[in-house]
Amino acid sequence: MSRAAVLTGLGAYLPPTVLPNDELASWWDRDPEWIRSRTGIERRHVLTPGSATSDLAVEAGRRALSCAGADRAGAVVVATNTPDRLSPAIAPDVAYRLGLDTVAAVDVNAVCTGFVYALATGAGLIAAGVAGSVLVIGADAFTTVLDPDDLTTRPLFGDGAGAVLLRAGTPDEPGALGGFDLGSDGARRDLIEIPGGGSRQRSAGLPVKEQDTWFRMQGRAVFAQAVRRMSASAARAADLVGWPTGEVDRWVLHQANARILAAVAREMDVPGDRFVSNIAAVGNTVAASIPLALRDGQADGTLRAGQRVVLSAFGGGLTWGSAALRWPELPGASAVAPDRCAP
Fold first, then answer.
1. Is the pLDDT assigned to residue 343 strictly greater than 70?
2. Cα 127 from chain centroid?
3. Kind and range of the H or E run holding 192
4. Active site residue 45
């Protein structure tokens, strides 16, 4: 039987500072309900001044290892769009700080789709025999790249990290990842971007304007693309593992905003209560979005062992991706240590 990647540990970390809607809305003299009604978000966590994305990733990775009762991983893959610096990648630093010494470590940047791409990368390393286990982390400090005066983007995003430990196993095991569906559309790269600071601008000798260093997004076009791409990709992932969409127990999608999640449910003709959602409490956490939703679904019992689960995300690039698994019985979620997998 072929070698598969099996989810065996889950961890997450949110920075302690919480930014609720009432505080955020006061910056612009707006009603907090204005934010909630348009996004479904009530609060978000923001990075502590002086800390960085790698700090979030290290803590989430440590918790995922603890959940699995492990102290090692054969490789580390970090999905992020907000590394500590342009170079080098943060994954080697994260691995070092977790005591993993000289293991293979690499960053993946597919923006909000990053975690699914990182899962596929980790699964590939296991299938190829490069590593017997892979720590996959999604981490972003996206509030650091937001224009504080932009009402269209500033309320949407929060900071955080989530991680899973994958181990080598067989495709018939609970937790085995399958049904990977990945795609991109570079023709629409300008819909989601941070235009300044890259090689194109530098080689042209142009000054870096402050507004070019902030994240920007064409909201209406992104909404339409997100609904279309996630709906199709999630359905393909289910089909690849032989699951009719009506028989999928839980859909865990990138938490972009509540309206997109509702639109995907309508597009797929799937009851909305089958979609795991934590967006009200954390906002859009980019590459951390799906593992944070998994953590919360595990903690509140929405995700239960044996359920058919499909993950799907959409992000800049444009990129999209999905994967499927039967939810495993996580060892750290036992009665002995009920919070180890879902702190």
1. no
2. 22
3. strand 192-193
4. no
